[in-house]
């Protein structure tokens, strides 16, 4: 195999295996920054040796064993062996070849869960949590993260470095939170994954309407979390939401990358395998018999769209009721704006406009482009074209996404032409 092909293969293997390796090392050395450095050492060794000797039959196990050896060397060099043995209860005869799997055995699921809770710790800012999670659990390079979020690479690198330092300075333990802290900490984990997915699903800025790599990584992390935390309905709810939303990608943009709104999409292009997975995740959450949280409610809304064979068959009355429930669970101006859209579709644009008008003085929506966009849509349906034109123009000035801005300007132009 050519060297470039070997490197591409190793990169693919690393993307799959790195989170498990870093999680296992972090359990040993109790520091995610050191764990990543040791894992990178193992990757460098692999790049050097596999280019000549070829890729082993079980590359993941090879990387894990090499990385664990590096961790043990690190403990020796730093004279932490005795303390670590006492903490972890190890009894290893250094004169013999240790059985690495037996000595350091721990379910990968437990390690990964600890790592997720660590990278998403509330002591970090939302931006730092996302960057660190993409780096350590998604296996993305700083360049890839910077490209996905359209920020300079040094900015991402600084966020990651500061996040590691913050975790170390705060002495955040590499362990599952106490039982009483689990709900709040899980909320932070889900928030990070949700933010990641949303930025990929509707890019806030730049020249692309969607950024699939962010959605793919968020969905992958969500699926991992669903396996290692199977009794949490909100985990399944978020996975369901992402599965169903992801099903629309092929229909969501034109061949030239222009946005296609939900009601105008060709539903034959929706991925029904992903829809099926999403509906199954909803059923799994419902079987747990707990009250619906925000992600499960949003997944149920997405399911209403997914089940409708045509836009006209959408059950907007049920969607309105679900938004009512969502506004009770997590009240916010953005939820209220979405509720206005559902009400307009179920009961007429004048009903939706009344709700939107009540939000016009909301400070948090002052620069939110979707507020004038939604109002413009209602005004268009009511025949108030000149007012709609002004709303779409305002929305275009507020949008930082080039494709979305172009769409809003076209809608404004259509109002002016009539």
TrEMBL record:
Residues covered by the RNA polymerase sigma-70 region domain: 21-79
Domain DUF6596 as annotated: residue spans: 185-285
GO biological process, one term: DNA-templated transcription initiation
Ranges that cross the membrane: none
Annotated RNA polymerase sigma factor 70 region 4 type domain residues: 117-167
Highest taxon of source: Bacteria
InterPro entries for the chain: DUF6596, RNA_pol_sigma-70_dom, RNA_pol_sigma70_r2, RNA_pol_sigma70_r4_t2, RNA_pol_sigma_r2, RNA_pol_sigma_r3/r4-like, WH-like_DNA-bd_sf
GO molecular function: DNA binding; sigma factor activity
Descriptive protein name: RNA polymerase subunit sigma-24
Organism for this UniProt entry: Tumebacillus algifaecis
